[in-house]
Amino acid sequence: MSQTGRWFRGRDLGGESRVAVKMALAASLSWVLATAAGEPRPVFAALVGLVALSGDPFSAFSVSVARIAGVFVGVLIGIGVLELDIRLSYIVILALFLGTLAGIPLRVGDRPNIQVAVSALFLVTLGRTGAVHAGVARLWETAIGAVVTLAVAVLLWPPDPVRELRQRLDRLRQALAADLALVAHDLAFGGDALAERMDDIRSHSVDAVREVLALEQARRSLRFNPLRRRDADELAQLEERMNLAARIYRHGRSVARDVADTAVQDAGLAAAVRAIAGTVDLALRDEDEQAALADADDKLAAAQPADTDALIVRAQLGQMLADLHELVETRRRYGPPRT
Q1: CB atoms < 10 A from the CB of 156, how many?
Q2: What is the DSSP string of 141-174?
Q3: pTM assigned to the model
């Protein structure tokens, strides 16, 4: 593969292009409106649009709000330190320390909001060179940029957490099917293929947990964006299946480790794994899995290994079936999850 191909592999170029257009549009509109309001060089109005927008499908709006807050606080810090009659180097150091400390409570996700320090530094630098005047003007200029940026974030290609969750769930489903197929192969025929893939299986299992932890961000994204609130019911259904994928992966990783470590072979358990994998695939596709689940129950019941290692594997497979039965029973009693 060429260097160019490696550079673009796995990237969502369409999504990145949309974010770039949104940033440029928000910055341009902010500049035009602030100029019309009487500011000849509204740098901070344009700055908000460039720094606040995000391509994260789950937290774009909340990230935008946090970064806009960072710009405001940074501007206030810059205005304050510029009033001190000390050398520029000391002013810059003070602005950076105050900005980074203020960025802790104004964090973006799980990271400090560095936009506070960036904005404070930007204002101090321009202020001492004469490019920025009247600190109060920077506040209303920033406010114009904030309003325009939030409008663009919500109205133009608003983040679609449901679409993103569908894609992530599909990737998890495919990875889970492939990993369980490998477990079934080693149970039936032996070999070292499973042992060689254990790092990948562990990584997939961790990814499944991360996706579950990201569900709260997806819910918050829907709440903040009125154009996406109609997707709340579908999001709840996707949450149910994402949780199932993570639980199955937890057991699947344990089964894979036990099979790889003990080199256990059992044709009956291999057939049960294949049946469970098919049932899981149907459940994650949101298709009727009850007939497949009954078949998986029968195949696991037919597998009666005497070897201790094989019995441990059988117990883990029983846990997978228990999770699937819980899902079916929940749907039977309550229907699709409600928000």
Answers
A1: 13
A2: HHHHHHHHHHHHHHHSS---HHHHHHHHHHHHHH
A3: 0.68
- CA pair distance 172, 248, nearest whole angstrom: 11
Tally Cβ neighbours within 10 Å of residue 98: 20
Residue 10 phi/psi, 5° resolution? 80, 5
Residue 131: pLDDT band (50, 70, 90) is: very low
Instruction: Give the chain's domains with CATH numbers.
Output: 12-155 (no CATH), 161-334 (1.20.58.220)
**Complete DSSP assignment for 71-118:** HHHHHHHHHHHHTS-S-HHHHHHHHHHHHHHHTTTT-BTTB--THHHH
Helical (H) or strand (E) element with 180: helix 161-189
Band of the pLDDT at 192, cuts 50, 70, 90?
A: confident
Confidence of residue 53 (pLDDT cuts 50, 70, 90): confident
